[in-house]
Amino acid sequence: MQTSTSLALSEFEHDVLNGLQKNPKSLSSKYFYDDEGSRLFQRIMHLPEYYLTRSELEIFTKHKEAMLSLFNSDQEGFELIELGAGDGLKTKVLLSHFSERNVPFTYIPIDISEKALDELTANLSREIPDLAMQPVNDDYFKALNGQMTYSQYTKRIVFFLGSNIGNFSEERSLQFLNQLKNCLNPGDMIMIGFDLQKNPFTILSAYNDTQGITRDFNMNLLDRMNRELGADFRTDRFVHYPIYDPATGEARSYLVSLLKQQVYLEKLDEWVYFEEGEAVHTETSRKYTLSQMKQLCTQAGLKPIHYFTDSKHYFADMLLKV
Ligand code: AVJ
């Protein structure tokens, strides 16, 4: 019998081989998040240059009351579902507020990482003892599509925060929103966090911090292949190279080979060849204008109800109705 870990591993193996044998080379940013990568991302969220988390936290702090009246306009309570909850830092602001107000609701964090989910629920039950919570350790759509009911509430509000949508291509984000819409009922709501286009130097710095944490985060992909695939990547033979293109709104990160070299992937018994200066694309983080945001959402057949932004207009959370 194949276990879920060996399945996941073979998908990783397959994607690595595919990505490194094509031209230009690429690896999916979803592979950043092993335990080490998740730890590094937690550190990124606290970096002075990484304004995204702080901006969204400001939005939630400033607009928690307005959000509550939109979520609970019928006073009937709701399910608050969060896709990829992470450490829940931003959501916690809302959860405590709703809890203080005795709002009838259940929090349903959905995450593929059991470790992240365990830490989140332990932390929340300590800090908000009254919180009704129903964590789900699964793939987003599997969790949403199952005929399962997680609470007594019929109305669902789904959060997809932190500019996670920015990692998707335009086509993929449209598909994602459509898929999400099809899991929900008319009247349900979705809140999406978008990073906004702004001074390109501000954006570039967020992916090129002076402490080198984002570099380590990117390089962890090489370490992960060493750990899991028995590869012999030397991180000193690559450079972390982030760029921001204000014409497309895309921040992209690369790992660039500093010399002509070959790398052996023991587990796959395969060699990969790099030219001097050859790039591996590892991540795209798309930044939006307000009109692009609205266009994407309406194209997906969702109705923009309200958007919330921070004092610097760096970030926006868009509330949509199905
Ligand atoms: C978690 C996908 C929102 O794109 O800004 C942070 C990941 N990459 N620094 C982002 C990330 C480099 C982050 N997201």
Kindly describe this structure:
By secondary structure, the protein is an alpha/beta fold. The chain is 40% helix and 24% strand. The protein is built from ten helices and 13 strands. It has helices at residues 4-21, 35-44, 51-71, 89-100, 114-127, 140-145, 170-183, 200-206, 213-229, 290-299, and strands at 25-26, 78-83, 105-111, 136-137, 156-160, 189-195, 238-245, 250-257, 261-265, 270-274, 279-286, 303-309, 315-321. Helix 2 runs antiparallel to helix 9 and helix 3 runs parallel beside helix 4 (89-100). The two termini are 41 Å apart. The structure holds N,N,N-trimethyl-histidine. The site of N,N,N-trimethyl-histidine has 12 residues, from helix 9 and strand 11.
Please describe the topology of this protein.
Layout: H1 4-21, E1 25-26, H2 35-44, H3 51-71, E2 78-83, H4 89-100, E3 105-111, H5 114-127, E4 136-137, H6 140-145, E5 156-160, H7 170-183, E6 189-195, H8 200-206, H9 213-229, E7 238-245, E8 250-257, E9 261-265, E10 270-274, E11 279-286, H10 290-299, E12 303-309, E13 315-321
Parallel strand pairs: 1-11, 2-3, 2-5, 3-4, 5-6
Antiparallel strand pairs: 6-13, 7-8, 8-11, 9-10, 12-13
Helix pairs in contact: 2-9, 3-4
The structure holds N,N,N-trimethyl-histidine (AVJ).
